Amino acid sequence: MTEVQHADPRARKVALLYLVVATACGAGLLLLIEQYGPSLSRWLLRAPRQDQLWFSALALLVLCLPLVLFAAWLWMYGVRVLRSDRHPPDGVKVVRDSPVARGSMARRYGRLCQTLATLLAAAAPIVAWLGWKLWRLP
User: Fold this and answer.
1) In this structure, are 19 and 54 located in the same domain?
2) Does a structural domain hold residue 3?
3) Distance in angstroms (rounded) separating the CA atoms of residues 1 and 78
4) Kind plus residue range of the DSSP H or E element containing 86
5) 1 in a domain, yes or no?
6) Cβ distance 128 to 60 under 8 Å?
7) For residues 90 and 18, what is the distance between their CA atoms, to the nearest angstrom?
8) Distance (Å, rounded) from C-alpha 133 to C-alpha 63?
9) pLDDT digits (tens, 9 = 90+) for 95-138
10) What angle, 0 to 180 degrees and rounded to 10, lies between the N-to-C axes of helices 9-46 and 49-84?
């Protein structure tokens, strides 16, 4: 019989709350961009070059920071899986009943998490570089 880690009802509620808050923030940001985007664009085109560079650098930082933070979290999660030789690791609350993997399959999950973390961390400077190149187009 396969070992199962049962869902934590509180973790499910917290995950749903995070999803609702993130969706509301994203929708609000889209509305702000739609409303203030044209005036921000006009200001940016008239602003001194130094201000344009600072704005673009800040925008690229805001764009890449979540990638780096998620990569760091995913790397540490992979470390926890590899150390405990169990997926999901001890102490992790799951939002649905999950089969527990041990041994080589758990190590595979841990290495997969670390591989994805590496790809995300590599994507951040690439996205920043591409954004910078796009900004510098005539």
Assistant:
1) no
2) no
3) 26
4) strand 86-87
5) no
6) yes
7) 23
8) 15
9) 999 999 999 999 999 999 999 999 999 999 998 888 888 877 76
10) 160
Residue 56 lies in a domain: yes
For 72-84, b/e burial (b = at least 16 CB within 10 A) is eebbebbebbbeb
User: Which residue matches tokens 């917290």?
Assistant: 14
125 and 58 in a common domain: yes
Decide if 2 is inside a domain.
no
Q: pLDDT tens for residues 59-69?
A: 888 889 999 99
Q: Please count the structural domains in the chain.
A: 2
**Residue-range definition of the domain harbouring residue 30:** 8-46
CA distance 87 to 105: 8
